[in-house]
Sequence to fold (582 residues):
Amino acid sequence: MKLLKKIEGDIMEQKYFDYKEIIAELIYSGVECQLDKDEIYKLLEYPPDENLGDLAFPCFKLSKVFKKAPIAIAKDMEGKIPSSSYIKRVVATGPYLNFWFAPEQLVENVLQQVLSSGERFGAQNIGDGRNIVIDFSAPNIAKPFHVGHLSSTVIGNSLYKIFEFLGFNCVGINHLGDWGTQFGKLITAYKKWGSRETVEKGLIQELMRLYVKFHEEAEKDPGLEDEAREWFNKIENGNQEALELWKWFKEISLEEFQRVYEVLEINFDSLAGESFYNDKIEAVVQELKAKNLLQESEGALIVNLDQYEMPPCLILKKDGSSLYATRDIAAALYRKKTYNFAQCLYVTGIAQSLHFQQWFKVIELMGYEWSKELVHIPFGWVNLEGEKLSTRKGKVVLLEDLLRETVKRTLEIIKEKNPGLEEKEEIAKEVGVGAVVFGALSVNRIKDVTFSWSEALNFDGETGPYIQYTHARACSILRKAGFKPDSSFDPHQLCNKEAIRLVKTIYLFPEKVVTAMKEYEPSIISRYLIVLAQEFNAFYHECQVLVNDEALQKARLVLVYAVKTILATGLRLLGIKAPERM
RNA sequence: GCGUCUGUAGCUCAGGGGAUAGAGCAACGGACUUCUAAUCCGUAGGUCGUAGGUUCGAUUCCUACCAGACGCGCCA
Fold:
């Protein structure tokens, strides 16, 4: 919470041109209303209809102060607002006091800022170099990388870029699921139904086959589960055969994951997975013991959380081996020590909410104030057209297959629509992959999604390719005009409806980036980009940019440049490429 | 049983105490000799799950209920 307060404070000092700030000042200085500037600032809202004005001050709250009807108050205030070069007019409409921005000022200020900041437009130093650890992706070794892993991977990657853009120093950690009973299961299955040759040949597909086979057989013979636990126990105790198999399976998986990360162009600062904390478990158990937090229960060691209305947090199984909460606690202690994070984010499925609540509480009970800096960033489930994904049953869509299909489809479209395009394969990759990533980031994290091939391969409407296409069109205009960013242009040339609307939307970008950070919600940016692209396309159809009128063309080019720049920045924050042609 | 999340147009989703609830897809009708038609314009489509409550005002907040998804000791 400390961090959030700090962030709030910084936002008030943002360097971006801020109409709310200006209007709050005008109201504050013109009307004696017992509200301070900050309170006025927070009441200001964007009207639902552009014909009503650009910013509105609702007067309901003042009716208690003045003991008058809000409509009368608005009317009263109308004449008391000092004039300003930024504001064209102030009109009371019902209980609202509506403000119109002076268009030339707006255009001039906003576009000059984009011209001078370029792709840094929207960037701020809110973080002041503080560290943010982001734990994301974290696929399980020996299981295929499927569409269910997409959310964590792309949400985490986008948050990384958003926080970085706002001045934080990010540490991306791929907390690989490279430890735990599933390795016992895999070794059991390997010993019974696999061989060195079949694994060498089939790689992850073979590991997956063995994993599925294990669960089929375990249905009939529950004794297999015990065998699997035994093997995992051997791994934890350093049995050589078990460790070698573990290492081998891990290498096979990592190679597979790396291929996907390369396609997505995602990098991590650390690959310290669960196994990395193996030698740090004992110290955690000792510390919990020393702090009197451990209890024995049914042979296992737990932290009782009854008084917090939560089930107990399991620390050690009755056979003495660790559980994922144990490893998460060890990892958090290590990360605090190593990175001294301002926040540590965990991007995982909503199903794990209770788990995080539990061990966050354990950290708090250990006396660490920074438990407040641990944040679970949950997201909803991915279903498979009516069915649930299940690695155990082999019911999955591999991410690699999905990406290959969308790239293939993109290439077909390019060949059909733009046969002369150079480097078709490279661009098809950027667009096809972008479609998948945008699809995953365009709705609220928390929603469950149903994966559907027809939707994944549809590139019309609110999609990644739509944004990229809009960007490519803007680039095309700038290229044809030989445009170079240059701050001399006449804002009066941009006073038509489509242009003004675009400038207002551009003006909102820095605010949207901050909201996306505060809510840990990349979809704020994807939704914004859709609106920006829609408005640009309307402008594109309505207003010819390359015209004989030099002043008009120059001004419109600046606007096109600004849109193009923000589309590119926004896509970058989502982890999506912005090709200049497609 | 207890708990969490979700419920808005046929479908997928925005919005989130305040002015007439918005997009996209699908459907239908238009716009390519013109800066890339992966585009644009138009038509149609809604008791914001139900019932109460708080409020000057609720689709938004609270409570209960209904529906779906998920979670609740040795998996992660």
About this structure: The first strand of chain A starts at residue 55 and ends at 58.
